[in-house]
Amino acid sequence: MKIKLNNINIDKKNPFKEDILERKESVEILTQLISETQDSLVLAIDSLWGTGKTTFVKMWQMHLENKGFSTLYFNAWENDFNDDALIALIGEIEIAIDSFETENSKLDKIQYNFEKIKRAASVLIKNSIPIALKYASAGVLDYDDLTEKAIGEITEKIAKNEINKYEESKHILTEFKEHLENFAKEITDSEKPIVFFIDELDRCRPTYALQVLEKAKHFFNVENIVFVLAIDKNQIGNSIKGIYGLDMDVDGYLRRFIDLNYHLPEPPKGAFVEALFKRFNFNKYFEERTNQSSNFRNDKEHFVSIFSELFSILNFSLRIQEQCFTQISLVFKTTPVSFKLYPILLAVLISIKNYNLDLYKRYINGNIDSNEIMTELFSSKEGKEFLDSHYGNVIEAYLIYYDSTEVKEQLIEKYRDIKDNQDINKDTYRKAEKIISIINDLDFAVAHNVKDYVVKKIEIMDRFQN
């Protein structure tokens, strides 16, 4: 059983072997799109932070390589230490050249063209370095001694240098793009563009993230190169506003750099939960528990079903779901297989804790009752529908059961009144009957201090958190 997951390994022969979120269709749609273009293109894969963009990008990259495309992968966050995004982007190309599978004679041409790119880039980078300070201070030791004439001469010198630098940069940029276009033609045929993936922009410093966008669009805007940006536009939008002000038109700004947006579809409910059970190796743990006692045989089903529903209702990202499983893993590792887990209550409390820590603390400290928890968690349309389902009834009954005595008695009485009402709607009657039945079963099967026991398990888990 694992505590923390490693990144998914993408199988070279079958990139979709671990496609638990059913994103093969999106890969095929996007592959068809870029196969039909020889123009410069910047495509954004837009999805919230923690929704599996990196895995998607790496599956797509492997799929493209299997179809004969040349690809590059640039992790922007890992290169965030660099002050100039252009240096990092060009450096990534140089690293990738060694991996290109091609004839030696063609490789020589590729490297020759790339050296031209580097020379042009070095001039562009040099010209972007401010030189005003150098000119302003050169040969002058005492600023008090500067005469009006001397200041005028220095100012004129700076102005001329800036004009010359601008003219040179404009010429070199044209040259840079020509070399880049020749380079692209050498490493791929005209029907298949180079696909340059840029990932993890969401995690970068705002200034660096925007610099990557700008450099990718302005410097690499040539035929046969497609940029794919894996981004959370909401997060990038915050970066833009942080730099340019809250009134900045984020969409208008991004349209300057991004030609097309593609939104990753939502994965099927429960698919990631099932996959996490497998990847954390929880199945083995539950098999050992079942061997210890048949009373534990439904524990896994309870965890899978409740997590699947709550993760969907509470709109947890894949990353938060994974964090929940890391926390559960710590509980499992500190609980012998022969001990009771109380999976329903544990799953509910872990979910509440990751949804709203303050809400969780107020609940376990007895400052709010089950009515407030139910209102907070299940006020959405999907939440209300869930409360009418089997596991919705189970969770409501559990929360009522662990309420304070006074509130618990009031809610039980409410459902008994519903149950005794002959004119009540059948579905409402069945729900009341089921909740009363579950509470009665808990009276026989559960010790009075179970909630405290489960909370203590979670508190032990907290000692391992950052």
TrEMBL record:
Gene3D superfamilies: P-loop containing nucleotide triphosphate hydrolases. InterPro entries: KAP_P-loop (IPR011646), P-loop_NTPase (IPR027417). Residues 28-304 form the KAP NTPase domain. Coiled coil: none annotated. This is KAP NTPase domain-containing protein.
